[in-house]
Amino acid sequence: MAPRGATRPSPSPAGDTPDLNAVFSSAATIVGVGQDQMGGDPEAVITSNDYGATWVEVLIANLPPTDANLNDGLFVTSTNVVAVGDAMGGVGEIILSVDRGASWTNPLSGLAGF
């Protein structure tokens, strides 16, 4: 259940809302990760910097290319976030954000059996 006063994530430009697999937070910042099957790019990341009152879907341009669905994540520090996922065929994915989820890089990919 959403906290009182929280709103549902704003729809993406295509009019869809991503399917989330995990939500995690650090202070006022909340990140949700999951899958977005629109446009051939399955991962989705949404962020809130105001305790969930408003949400922003991270633009595909700010996500590394991957065919993984993101399944979980955590804040390592107050600004660094790690998310993990998997793709068909047992290939894993780890993505990293150093700016509270606004943009992401892919330091590791292709981990067989991950």
Q: How would you portray this structure in words?
A:
The protein is mostly beta strands. The protein has one domain (19-112): TolB, C-terminal domain (Neuraminidase), CATH 2.120.10.30. The chain is 0% helix and 45% strand. It is built from no helices and eight strands. The protein has strands at residues 19-26, 29-35, 43-48, 56-57, 69-75, 81-86, 91-97, 105-112. The strands form two sheets. A four-stranded antiparallel beta sheet has the order 1-2-3-4, with no helix packed on it. The radius of gyration is 13 Å and the shape is globular. The termini are far apart. Residues 1-14 have low confidence and may be disordered.
Summary keywords:
114 residues; mainly beta; Neuraminidase; 4-stranded antiparallel β-sheet; globular
Quick recap:
By secondary structure, the protein is mainly β. It has a single domain, classed as TolB, C-terminal domain (Neuraminidase), CATH 2.120.10.30. The protein is about 0% helix and about 45% strand.
